Structure formats: C-alpha cells, structure tokens
Amino acid sequence: MNVIIGIVLVLGCVAGGFVLSHGHLAALWQPYELLVIGGAAFGAFVIANPGKVIKAVTKHLPSLFKGSPYTKAYYLDALALIYDLLTKARKEGMMSLEADVEDPEKSNIFGKYPKLLHNHHAVDFLTDYLRLMVGGSIKNAFELENLMDVELDTHHEEAHQPAAALTRIADGLPGFGIVAAVLGIVITMGALGGPPEEIGHHVAAALVGTFLGILLAYGFVGPMSTLLEHCTRDESQFFKVLKTVLLASQQGYSPQVAVEFGRKAIFSTERPTFRELEEHVKRK
Asked: Is 202 helix (H, G, I), strand (E, B) or coil?
C-alpha cells in the first residue's frame, strides 16, 4: 500500500506542479524517449546480472506492494511454534522431535502455523538445526552459533543481491536519460531550417528524456531498491530471532525463557509484550 501511495504522490506532485506552472501534460508524453531509457536500462540490467539475480529481482518486486510479512502476529506464531517444539522435547526428550523435523508437512505442531509452514526457508532453518540437536551432532551452543552464523551470513549476501542490482540500475537511469536527450538533439539538428514549432517540439522531447531518466531513478527505481533493502533487513532479523531462541535452548534455558530471549531480539515496532506472547502461546 505504501508503494502505491508513494507512486501517486510522486506523479501527483510532479505533474501537479508542472500543470500549475502552466505546463501542458501532453508535452511530457514521449513514448519513444521512454523506449530508449527503459529499453537501455533493462538491457544493461540483463548484461550486468546473472540469471539467478534477474530471477530474484522479478520474484521480489511484486512483494514490495504487499509489505513486509514479518509483523507482530507473524513473530507471535514463530515464537509459539518454537515454544511448542521445545516443550515437547523437554517433556518427551529430544528424540520425540524426530518425526516433526523430518516431515514438517505432516507434523501436528507445524500444522498449527500454516503461514510459517509456507515459509520454506524458515522451516528448513528450524528443522536443520533441530535435527542436529536431536541427533547430538552439536555438542554445545558455541558450535551451533558458529554454524548458524555461516548460514545467516551467506543468506544475507544472497538476499542483498536483488537490491544491489536495482540500485545500480537507478544509478544508471540519469545517464540513459542523457542518452535519450542527446538523440533528441541529433534529431533537432536534422530539423534545423524547418518550421520553428517543429524544432521546439524536438527540443522539448529531448529535454523530457533527461527529465524521465532522473524521475525514474530518484522517484521510482531508487526508492524501490531501498525498500527491498528494508525487506531484506526484516527477513534477516527474523532469522536472528530464530537463532537466538535455539541457542538459548541449547544453553539449557527452559522453553519459556528461550522464547523470551527471542522476543527481546525483535525490533520494537513488531515486538509483542510479555503478556501478549504468554497468552498467544496458551491459546495455541
């Protein structure tokens, strides 16, 4: 929703200011300038990025319009899920989790949290480390933390690539606007000697090319890359919360205390209160 509001504000204020200054909106409609700028930018994007990054960008862009999924309710479910798993392990032994971690799709515990079950990366993260804890492959919390840090660092680097790719395109768009403007001037030079209104039209079209390159860079693509960075940060923080809870459990804390460690790792804007978490866990 914020993205749509922002787009409306950008277009509304730019177009509104132009019209109030006695400009004609029709003069800004230059489809061939858009073709030059957009086509060149997309071509540069394809040249600069491997297929996996292009695929990641096209996958993440639609999610920007939905907002971050890592809300307070999502965190409550995540902490409740881990609490249920750790409570079962404390009552019945770690081996009782074997069926849950080997096939979470059929697990009664995971089944209570369908939103989390659809987050395959989060489920893989939880089941991988619970599997190590169940099997006794990890002897202490330091070994577990080192392994988690390796995965989270790798995930952070990978998740940052789409935002970085968009940032580079945003940086290049003003340049492509200049390219469109130069081409417009070339056309204008060829029209010298003709009617003055035709020359004026070509000069205006050339200037619109520069305008569009700058507007697309700083009004749309640049902000979208920044928003994608925020989404990546939210996702990274979510996995840090999962890591914190599992490490606390590995250090011997009770499930209730372990999820409290995780609650404290949540950003204040999404962090539930102690009572909210307690009531949510009991309801589940």
From this structure: helix
CA distance 126 to 132: 10
The rounded distance, in Å, linking the Cα atoms of 205 and 211 is 10
Cβ count near 24 (within 10 Å): 10
Domain boundaries in the chain?
30-283
DSSP string, 193-225: TS-HHHHHHHHHHHHHHHHHHHHIIIIIIHHHH
C-alpha closest to that of 54 among 168, 153, 156, 155? 168
Angle of helix 222-250 relative to helix 141-190, nearest 10 degrees, comes to 180
**66 three-state secondary structure:** coil
Measured CA angle at 35 (ends 30, 37), to 5 deg: 95
- Treating both helix axes as pointing N-terminal to C-terminal, what angle do 222-250 and 255-264 enclose, rounded to 10 degrees? 150
pLDDT digit of tens for each residue in the chain (284 aa)? 788 999 999 999 999 998 998 888 888 888 999 999 999 999 999 999 999 999 999 988 888 888 889 999 999 999 999 999 999 999 888 888 989 999 999 999 999 999 999 999 999 999 999 988 887 777 788 888 999 999 999 999 999 999 999 999 999 999 999 999 998 888 888 767 777 767 777 788 888 989 999 999 999 999 999 999 999 999 999 999 999 999 999 998 999 999 999 999 999 999 999 999 999 887 76
